[in-house]
Amino acid sequence: MTLGRISSEESMGLVDGPGIRYVVFLQGCQLRCKYCHNPETWDMSKPSFLLSPEELVKKVERFMPYFGKDGGLTFSGGEPLLQPQFLKECLYLCKEKSIHTVIDTAGVSISDSKTMHEILSLCDLIILDIKSSDDEKYRELTGQPIDRFKNFLALAQSLNKKLWLRQVIVPGLNDNEENIKDLAKFIKPIQNVERIELLPYKSLGESKYKKLGIKYPLAGLKDMDEAKCKDLENLLHQILGRSV
To answer: What dotted CATH number matches 4-240?
Structure first.
């Protein structure tokens, strides 16, 4: 039996895709982003609990009356693509029951292209976190090379998947026009983009690091100014010639 390693769940998510979402945070992540606010999800061997695909989808079905025409189930993390078999089986069951599905991912996919093809074919929308569009800056920020992200994006494009693109804006790191211009250049050729968002950095995760005994890379850094973040987002949209 396939079991998913679950970090946590949220039954009424409002920012994890269209409409009201049931959000499942899967355990496991290979990136070590400097601003990560979910360090408790890193270690695959330490899930809060285990669920089979059937058990999870049965729980989600109870919330379908709240979803309306837009809502559904979002898989987040951690990195949901690191549990491919569980994810694939859940998506298949959701497709059978007409539950709209979203994968919220950094695109750190596994090397099994057949399985990834099956997963992306089954999901309805991808929320893709662009850590950085620059190879060197990506590695500095995440501790990993950018190759898997680019391979994932190429596969999503080949399957014409709908995309929401996001990037976290961090004071002193990428909160400048140069980054926005580089990001716009990277995004411009991407097809099927429904939404582009810049998210202001929040220091809320710092307490989790202390609790886990992990050094926080951005200790003492103040939250990103939300007005400035919005100005940068407007600039990005202006360069791209779009309003969303």
So the answer is: 3.20.20.70
Span 187-232, pLDDT tens digits: 999 999 999 999 999 998 888 999 999 999 999 999 999 999 999 9
| Count of other CB atoms within 10 angstroms of residue 218 | 18
Give the start-to-end residue ranges of the domains of the chain.
Answer: 4-240
